[in-house]
Design brief:
CATH architecture of the largest domain: 3-Layer(aba) Sandwich
Structural class: alpha+beta
CATH superfamily of the largest domain: Glutaredoxin
Number of domains: 4
CATH topology of the largest domain: Glutaredoxin
Oligomer: single chain
Radius of gyration: 29 Å
Helix content: 40-55%
Shape: elongated
Largest sheet: 7 strands, mixed
Order of helices and strands: HEEEEEEEEHHHHHHHHHEEEHEHEHEEH
Number of strands: 15
Distance between the termini: 39 Å
Number of helices: 14
CATH class of the largest domain: Alpha Beta
Length: 475
């Protein structure tokens, strides 16, 4: 199982709700874009999970109109019209889905005229308001840069003006929500809203709690996000909100991330589509993260949500692969005790991994016929001879295929004078690869003196830096 499957799964989820929306009242969407030639092919797309997905296409008629018509309504949310030039404008796919919008290519926002859709009128009123305030902010930001280190009085004037504009924007949203609480635009404003942090309390020592702002902000980050409203899934806001919480507000360790995962999944249970999205998105995010140790999050999700049959949107074959991957990955998670291995060296003598007495041990699964191995194993040997051996590193190199003569020849030709082993029995050899979750070769796993996994799926060039980091941690 790899990320390709999860990407496919994620895209499928993005489309599946459209296919099974269940509303057959139909839709009629008309977009007139001045300055567009007849015959221009444009796309109708929607936001989902940090990406945009094509839903339909249409060609402009001789009036510059795009017409989208169908018998089954789209799920509501924020959609896009994408022109051949790749320019685009957003709009709200509302409940009625029978409206028209007219604009031009010079300024989509300023020249937008909406008919028969209050949501889109509100949406473009806000965009015009923001556009006008942005024009006020730009010269003030330039002025701020000019005076920030020169004139404190001028700086305060600029800061006060920027603060006033910021307050005006906040007040606009607050008043809109108050006057139009049931609109989707209000839901968008609420989802964008940031927690207002009160003054930090005093500690027993008479000093203010310096961690209060972080903990308060994190605890109230989703206060105004309605997890029961699946329309938010089809916006550019929701996915970013989730990522900000996971990446910026959560310490990047598996234990901390697992707590945040469960917290967000718990909130998503308010709506089946939300639950499906959150579980799938976070599975995809941590299934093969570039950050060391994140396999622990994937295993946590498999054990808590997949193996317990809470996930019902994947077929039995794929479910087996997901649970199987989580099951075997668990044996070599960062911090786990490495599985014991006993294999035969080139002379036929049994060598136990746990009998190796060294500060660090690199367990490497490789094949003498593997192209990458032919390049990386000699590189690893050069590092071993010149740097790693002096740092107390031993290498337990496992030939993972039954090609004894070729293996011995390669070992001799490249002077691989570390511990070279192999396993004759097919079942035991396959089990070793399972226990160390060897998907490709070479696969390197770094163990400490107690045979605790400290790093896995690393390149030879990374070993020295990781060991130096671990040594600094000790000291």
């Amino acid at each position: 199982m790899n990320r390709i499957f999860y990407k496919f799964l994620f895209v499928f989820i993005a489309f599946s709700s459209s296919l099974f929306a269940g509303n057959t009242d139909g839709y009629l969407l008309k977009f007139k874009i001045k300055n567009m030639k007849a015959g221009a092919s444009c796309l109708l797309a929607n936001y989902y999970g940090g990406n945009q997905y094509k839903q339909d296409s249409a060609v402009t008629n001789d009036k510059g109109e795009l017409i989208f018509k169908g018998t089954e309504k789209y799920p509501q949310g924020v959609y896009l019209i994408i022109l051949p030039s790749k320019k685009y404008f957003d709009f709200i796919m509302d409940a009625g889905q029978n409206f028209s919008m007219e604009t031009d290519t010079i300024d989509f926002i300023k020249n937008m005229v909406v008919k028969n859709s209050d949501e889109n009128k509100f949406f473009y009123d806000y965009q015009n308001f923001m556009s006008s305030r942005q024009k006020q902010v730009e010269p003030l930001q330039a002025a701020y840069q000019r005076v920030k280190d020169k004139n404190k009085d001028s700086l305060k004037i600029v800061q006060d003006q920027l603060t006033a504009i910021d307050k005006e924007v906040k007040d606009y949203k607050i008043n809109f929500i108050k006057n139009n609480p049931k609109t989707f635009v209000s839901q968008l404003f609420l989802a964008m809203q940031e927690p207002e942090i009160p003054e930090a309390p005093m500690l027993a020592n008479g000093k203010k709690d310096t961690t209060f702002a972080y903990h308060y902000y994190k605890a109230h980050f989703f206060d105004h996000v309605d997890f029961s409203d699946e329309r938010l899934l089809r916006t550019p806001i929701f996915h970013k909100k989730i990522n900000d919480y996971m990446d910026k507000l959560t310490p990047q360790t598996p234990d901390s991330i697992n707590i945040s995962v469960d917290y967000i999944v718990g909130k998503s249970r308010a709506n089946p589509e939300m639950f499906k999205y959150i579980v799938s998105a976070l599975t995809f995010k941590y299934e093969d993260s570039k950050i060391m140790g994140m396999y622990g999050v994937f295993v946590h999700m498999v054990e808590k949500y997949y193996a317990t049959k809470q996930v019902n949107w994947v077929d039995s074959a794929q479910m087996y692969k997901i649970v199987d991957k989580g099951t075997w990955l668990k044996y070599t998670l960062i911090g786990a005790k490495a599985p014991q291995l006993t294999m035969n060296d080139t002379s036929g003598n049994a060598v136990s991994l746990y009998d190796i007495k060294s500060k660090y041990t690199v367990v490497v699964f490789w094949e003498q016929a593997c192209g990458h191995c032919k390049k990386e194993i000699p590189e690893l040997m050069e590092l071993y001879k010149t740097k790693l051996k002096a740092k107390g590193v031993q290498v337990y190199a496992i030939e993972s295929e039954e090609k004894l003569p070729e293996w011995k020849k390669f070992v001799k030709e490249h002077d691989l004078n570390w511990i070279n082993v192999w396993e004759k029995d097919d079942y035991k050899r396959a089990l070793a690869k399972k226990l160390y979750f060897v998907e490709t070769t070479p696969t390197l796993v770094l163990l400490d003196e107690n045979k605790i996994v400290r790093a896995r799926k690393i390149d030879p060039s990374q070993i020295e830096g990781i060991i130096d980091y671990l040594e600094k941690q000790k000291n």
